[in-house]
Amino acid sequence: MALYALLGFAAGLPFYMFSTVLTLRLQAHGVALAVIGFFAWVQLLPTLKFVWAPLLDRYSIPGFGRFWGKRRGWIMLAQLGIFSAMIAMALTAGDASLAVTALFAVLLAFWTTTLEVAADAWRIELYPTQDEQGPIVAANLWGYRTAMVAAGSGALIVADGAGWVAAYLLIAVAAFLPFPLLVAMRPDGEGGGGGRWVALATGLVASLVILGAAALLTAAVGWAALSAAAGLGIGAGSNVTPYVLVLCMVPFLAMGAALPWIRNAPPTSRLRTSTVLGPYVDFFWRYGGAALLLMAFVSLYRMGDVLALNLSKPMIKGLGYSLTQIGRADSLVALVASMAGVGLGGWLATRWRMTWLLALGAVVAAAGNFGFVWLAHQRVDEALLYVSTAADQFGNGFAGAVFVVYLSLLVNPRYPGAQYAFLTGFAFLLPRLLAGAGGTMVGAIGYDGFFLLSGFVSLAAIPLLPLLARVVARPEDHA
């Protein structure tokens, strides 16, 4: 449990360093707000983890895998990836080249997500029953929540006093803490032959090759993407919102086009029996046309919070608050408010109808976003910043807890893992895609307009609730 708390801590630290903390760093170096918004697209990687997750099931890391086992081997590689990417971000903290900054931010997001995938797989293998999972999941989430405080507040306070290089180096060291513990652990039953130090040396050499290959591949893809954007005339001054909105419609059009075939597929159809596609096809087979309504609601419900995440801190900094003041607000105030929201949402989920609970969640989440508009028109006062932060985090925690319960109820118990991963991935895919255009939105409508819009987007999910209350899943047509 202590190790999983530490793994949660190690996974939670980097997320803030390539999201919220990075936006403040870029703002400090005079980067255009539209470009800061583009960096929100780095957060799309965690929603796409299904693309490379099968590799972690099939392959082992040379050296690490032979001595410590497949799962721990991947965790150790991911730890090295996080550490090296964070060091690189520290050494390029001046942001002289935004392309280089983006490269290392993407690598940090990739290895952070890989750590989470490997740790989750190992956890499920070690503790397969429900009563075993509860404590280990709690330990992991507590570590993750603690990391949010450490990175969201500690890194900013250090940066305010000692600079961005020191902040990233400190978080890099903290995120690397599980590695020596993993090295010291006993060999895995899969094969502990050979010496520990030989296995470690072999694993380090293999990791160096893998990390280098991943960096080169990421750089090549990034160069191609930037070249394509330049060819289309997209730059810091471009309004990309219309393009993103069109792109957001593509998944709905594709799902709508496929529904007739899915809805009429018999139990023996390869679409429904496929190991890879079957769980996802099953969701649309059970809900039919209502699946599009469900996906629209899922995309809207947390969109306001996702839109506000990246640009709330630059707005607050622009009001005249220091990094230290922002850091203090993001420490105990944010943690307590978030925990209170999660606890109340979970408690009410056992007592209220889900329709009413979802509506209340949308209202408190919207209120948190409206709080930023209120803060912008007040004098600079740290106590008022605490009020705004608490309202935002309480709403975020409450709506998040309610949303998790609702998504869990939509899942077919035959495919709990795959369908829940699909729903959560889709829930944040489109909002994070649109969040990348947040900077250009602020340029067009200002911060007040942006945070009012993000709040009203959360409320826009409420009119769908009466329709959702009537949605019933199609009964199974086979054993």
Give the SSE map:
Elements: H1 2-17, H2 20-28, H3 33-38, H4 53-58, H5 64-68, H6 70-91, H7 98-126, H8 130-162, H9 164-175, H10 178-184, H11 196-231, H12 241-263, H13 270-273, H14 278-287, H15 290-301, H16 303-318, H17 323-348, H18 354-376, H19 382-410, H20 416-435, H21 438-459, H22 465-468
Helix pairs in contact: 1-7, 1-8, 1-9, 2-16, 6-7, 6-9, 6-10, 6-11, 7-11, 8-9, 8-17, 12-14, 15-20, 16-18, 16-20, 16-21, 17-19, 18-19, 18-21
Task: Describe, in plain words, how this protein is organized in 3D.
The protein has 479 residues and is mainly α. It folds into 2 domains: 1-238, MFS general substrate transporter like domains (Growth Hormone, Chain: A), CATH 1.20.1250; 240-470, MFS general substrate transporter like domains (Growth Hormone, Chain: A, Up-down Bundle). Helix content is 77%, strand content 0%. It has helices spanning 2-17, 20-28, 33-38, 53-58, 64-68, 70-91, 98-126, 130-162, 164-175, 178-184, 196-231, 241-263, 270-273, 278-287, 290-301, 303-318, 323-348, 354-376, 382-410, 416-435, 438-459, 465-468. Helix 1 (2-17) packs antiparallel against helix 7 (98-126). It starts with a helix and ends in an 11-residue tail after the last helix. It is found in: Membrane. The chain crosses the membrane at residues 33-52, 73-93, 99-122, 142-159, 165-185, 197-223, 243-262, 283-301, 331-349, 356-377, 383-409, 421-445, 451-473. Keywords: Membrane, Transmembrane, Transmembrane helix, Transport. Its main location: membrane.
